[in-house]
Design a protein that fits this description.
75% of the residues lie in helices and 0% in strands.
């Protein structure tokens, strides 16, 4: 994984938000983020090594989920 692959995290966040707008219940957003991360990890980040793709993709998906959750909680603290 290269440093520029970290741009995948906000991309995953955006796709999950789009899926939520299309009707996905909010409680499944973290699962959708992890699944999208795994798919991106296998297809884009590490297409030659499935195990590494799953590991990197899962970390990207969970990072996207945590970044969203952390930002949301921080903004709610100021309300």
């Amino acid at each position: 994984m290269h440093v520029y692959d970290i741009a995948i995290v906000p991309l995953i966040m955006g796709v999950v938000e789009l899926i939520k707008m299309l009707g996905l219940p909010k409680k499944f957003a973290a699962l959708a983020s992890a699944i999208l991360g795994i798919i991106v990890g296998i297809v884009y980040v590490s297409p030659g090594d499935v195990a590494q793709g799953i590991l990197v993709g899962l970390s990207l998906g969970l990072a996207a989920s945590g970044l969203y959750s952390g930002a949301k909680n921080t903004l709610e603290a100021f309300d």
